[in-house]
Design brief:
- It is built from 6 helices and no strands.
- By secondary structure, it is an all-alpha fold.
- α1 packs antiparallel against α2 and α4 runs antiparallel to α6.
- The longest helix is centred in the C-terminal third of the chain and has 25 residues, at 104-128.
Length: 131
């Protein structure tokens, strides 16, 4: 058990978060190329989480929590500013020879929200970890 939830509950959470992450991230992307690229994000996240778990001997429930939280973190970082990020991506794909300057407030949101989410994820994980 991790954070008073059994491993099966964390597995169900991860199983629900994965398609939700893919759907929301695809919704946030403006072009077919960008939609394709974000569709595969859960795979490297899962591989990294499993490798980390194996190296550190963490509980499966802990890794499922980290996996789910990281996928949700990406959605929180991107979905609220999808309009501006989408415009930047579309412009860059249309004109690959020029450097597109990122929308400043969007960039601030992505880094700021990512930092806050990362701190929250680690704090919750530390509070519930057996180590």
């Amino acid at each position: 058990m991790f954070l008073s939830l059994p491993t099966a509950a964390w597995a169900a959470t991860a199983a629900a978060v994965t398609p939700a992450h893919i759907a929301l991230m695809r919704w946030s992307m403006p072009t077919p190329k960008a939609k394709r690229s974000v569709s595969f994000v859960p795979l490297p996240v899962a591989i990294t989480a499993l490798a980390y778990a194996a190296a550190k001997s963490y509980l499966l429930a802990e890794i499922l929590y980290l996996y789910s939280a990281v996928l949700l973190m990406f959605v929180v970082m991107i979905a609220p500013v999808k309009k501006w990020i989408g415009a930047d991506i579309a412009k860059q794909e249309a004109h690959p020879d020029i450097k597109v300057k990122a929308h400043g407030p969007s960039l601030a949101w992505v880094f700021g929200s990512g930092l806050v989410m990362l701190v929250a994820i680690v704090a919750v994980w530390s509070a519930g970890s057996r180590y």
